[in-house]
Design goal:
The chain is α/β, with parallel strands linked by helices. The chain has a domain at 17-155: Cupredoxins -  blue copper proteins (Immunoglobulin-like, Sandwich). It is built from seven helices and eight strands; from the N terminus they run αββββββββαααααα. The chain has helices spanning 2-16, 113-126, 133-147, 155-200, 207-212, 229-239, 255-258, and strands spanning 19-28, 31-36, 39-42, 47-51, 60-63, 79-82, 87-92, 102-107. A four-stranded mixed β-sheet has the order 2-1-4-6, with no helix packed on it. β1 (19-28) and β2 form a beta hairpin.
Length: 259
């Protein structure tokens, strides 16, 4: 049973393992004698392959984590190594060690950083070219340690992935609900605004007009008249009467005068 579990764990680790390539160059990226990339941060069980793109180079480990196997290759030979132990691996090219042709690989936490710093100081002191290169590589690795967290291995990786997906889904739903609520608020504001605009120019009708359908003319005020004005008004009306209604006067006969 234990053998079966061990085999399953090994298969799971191999399924998640990655492969990395490092080129050995006499000139690259505007610099002489480099490993490219010179700084790697990998997972336990990953494989690193060193490719002699240009001749005259090899790999030799200077500092490795406790319990790890030493790295070594012949000149101009393709070399692959699978790394498992946590810590920093410092390696160089023996023919070009004094030219600071070196590199760093890290798995997990930098548990042996103190030993690596001591070895880097010794290599930098003996370097005749590219001084300060290894210290720059270590600074880059420190920056990666700040930005990148170690990924979980095995079943923890699946649990972490499921958790991340759940969190993303929850955030997405919350965003959609928030958008719907904002849309409803904006729609209500728009409705109120339209209602105000439609009633702004409306003049309220009088009650009679609303009931009968036609406006009623306003009553004219009657001015009071002073005393005696009624008689004068009657006389004026009599004088202005038409000739047809006025009494005709009978002309006197002239017979009596002639008598």
């Amino acid at each position: 049973m234990k053998k079966l579990l061990t085999g399953l764990c090994l298969l799971a680790t191999l399924a998640q393992a990655a492969e990395h390539e490092v080129q050995m160059l006499s000139w690259g990226k505007g610099q002489p004698m480099i490993f490219d990339p010179a700084v790697l941060q990998i997972e336990a069980g990953d494989t690193v392959t060193f490719i002699p793109v240009q001749k005259g180079h090899q790999v030799d480990s200077v500092v490795i984590p406790e319990g790890a196997e030493k790295m070594y290759s012949e000149i101009d030979q393709r070399y692959s190594v699978t790394l498992h132990k946590t810590g920093i691996y410092l390696y160089t090219c023996i023919p070009h060690r004094t030219m600071n042709m070196s590199g760093l690989i890290q798995i997990g936490a930098p548990t042996n950083r103190v030993e690596v710093v001591k070895a880097i100081d010794e290599l930098e002191e003996k370097a005749i070219m590219n001084k300060g290169r290894l210290r720059k590589y270590l600074a880059q690795l420190d920056e990666l340690n700040k930005q990148v967290r170690t990924k979980p291995v095995g079943s923890n990786a699946a649990e972490q992935s499921a958790k991340e997906l759940t969190e993303k889904s929850t955030e997405s739903n919350a965003t959609e609900k928030g958008g719907d609520a904002e849309g409803a608020v904006e729609k209500a504001k728009s409705t109120v605004k339209k209602s105000r605009v439609s009633t702004a120019g409306r003049v309220p009708k009088p009650k009679d007009e609303e009931m009968c359908g036609s406006p009623r003319k306003p009553a004219q005020a009657i001015k009071p008249q002073p005393a005696g004005s009624s008689a004068q008004s009657t006389a004026q009306n009599t004088q202005t009467a038409s000739p047809e209604t006025a009494p005709k006067s009978t002309p006197k006969t002239t017979q009596s005068a002639s008598q």
